[in-house]
Design goal:
With about 120 residues, the protein is mainly α. The chain has helices at about 5-25, 30-55, 65-90, 90-115. The protein has one domain (about 5-115). About 85% of the residues lie in helices and about 0% in strands.
Amino acid sequence: MNDTVGVLLIIGCLLLAAWSLLLVVLGRPLDNPLFYGLSVLEAALLVQVVAGIVMLAGSSRDVDGAAFVGYLLTAVLILPLAVVWAVAEKSRWGTGVLVAGCLTVAVMVVRMQQIWAGAGA
């Protein structure tokens, strides 16, 4: 797993979580610019899935492959589910779900980096 890509994903998640939190404080629902940002983050996560699986297949590292792939796939699913929830829930709490989703994905990327490094796998 590429550490630079992981750090960029984490930063993107944290920035989008902060933006979502601002919308929660303002009492506003999901807006188009935030949706576009989440879409870019989701595309980057999809690239990470493909790259992670390819790197795992070509690696001789002692990595817990099932856990690593599980984290990769789950991280890709969280944001679309959070967006659907945020669109369905028109109150500020729909946007609150985006805060939780972005923070969860950031933590999952950190955990993927730990698994890849062999720490606590």
